[in-house]
Amino acid sequence: MQTPVIIIIIGLFIFWGHYLSGVFERRSIPDVLGLMLIGMLLGPVFHLVEPGSFGSFGSLFSNLVLIFILFESGTDLKISEVQSSFKESAGITTLGFLVTWATISIMCLFIFKLPFLSCLFIGSTLGGTSSAVVVGLVKKIAVRPKTATTLIMESAETDVFTLAIPLSILGLMITGNMDPSIVVAQFIASLVVALLIGIGGAFLWSFILNKTPNLKTTKFSTPAFLFILYGLTEYLNFSGPITALSFGIAIGNLQYFEPKILERIIPNQSIVLPQGEKDFFSELVFLLRTFFFVFIGISVQINRLDWLMWGAIITLTVFAARIIAVILIVARDTPLLDKAVMSIMVPKGLGAAVIATLPLQRAHPDGVIIQSVCFAVILFSTLYCVGLFFLTKTGISLPVYRLVFGRDKLTVQEEALEQRGTEI
């Protein structure tokens, strides 16, 4: 394909991404689906682009997306907000992740006969929920503010699980060491060193900004410093992604990490990113995620229909397991509509997609099937979530959920929705 044509296509992709974002706002259809569809048409359907044609750039691109996603996730995670809503969100966050992790891991173990660590990696990667999809959908349905906050905080808090755990498991997969004492030692060493580099790097960067005020006016100096930290950590054979995540969390929550002895040297306010820089990062992440989901579509293995089919079945099982988690953890007097919405909010997103590419990048023998299964679950979880959201919002599925969760007293709105669903 000629260079001018590629440049034109890049421009069209950006406009397509903005258009799909608008569709999401108006129609509650996540842009992920449209981007992956375009990628599938370009790749496995019409074979205009092959994943192998990206060469080493594909690996570099995935790492860049990972760095920015982890950094933005870290800066957006406010410890004060987590503390204030911890009682409401901790239960569904922890139990939801564990149930999903166990469900997917067990199914992969029996269906694909993969090694135990590979199954744990897939399960932990797909154990969370997509913040972009959850936040967008929750705003479009009249659940209680407490329920909306719980779901939004869950999507943010599970990032810690779905990033730290699979990355630690990946290190064990690469080394192939299963000795319990060595495994625990490697896990702790990798995690602690990466955290120290990330948090220590945040202090150092704050100090540098205080000493060189001109850097505060630049927009790319912070990610440039993060690139150095990430590369250094990876070069030392520790977890670069954990460093990126901890650096972002420390940047956004310095007052919770900074020892009193450093307060005079590193003022808290200097490390707070200006709104203009946050907007720049958000736009950059938007561009990266647009191209990355197209890349996912290109990489989907539709020639392995069995993998796609099993991905669809695994996703159905995840939704069923989610209902069990909601029954166990959510108060009985919670409105039926809220329980129904909590049961369907398990779409998988960009973080899971990026993590899923890492085993293949690092030449793990199970890399292809891990990536393919994860991509399939991401696709079907979004499709199922959107479909069930429509059925719930219109009231069509409320009678079914009423059978599942028991005959609690319906709110006036739920009665109206149920009546509307019956008429439809």
UniProtKB/TrEMBL annotation:
The keyword Transcription regulation does not apply. GO terms for biological process: proton transmembrane transport. The chain crosses the membrane at residues 6-24, 31-48, 54-71, 92-114, 120-138, 159-178, 184-208, 220-236, 280-302, 308-331, 343-362, 368-392. GO terms for molecular function: antiporter activity. GO terms for cellular component: plasma membrane. It is a multi-pass membrane protein. Signal peptide: none annotated. Pfam families: Na_H_Exchanger (PF00999). Residues 20-383 form the Cation/H+ exchanger transmembrane domain. The keyword Transmembrane applies. It comes from the Bacteria. It is found in: Cell membrane. Keywords: Antiport, Cell membrane, Ion transport, Membrane, Transmembrane, Transmembrane helix, Transport. This is Sodium/hydrogen exchanger. The lineage of its organism: Bacteria, Pseudomonadati, Bacteroidota, Saprospiria, Saprospirales.
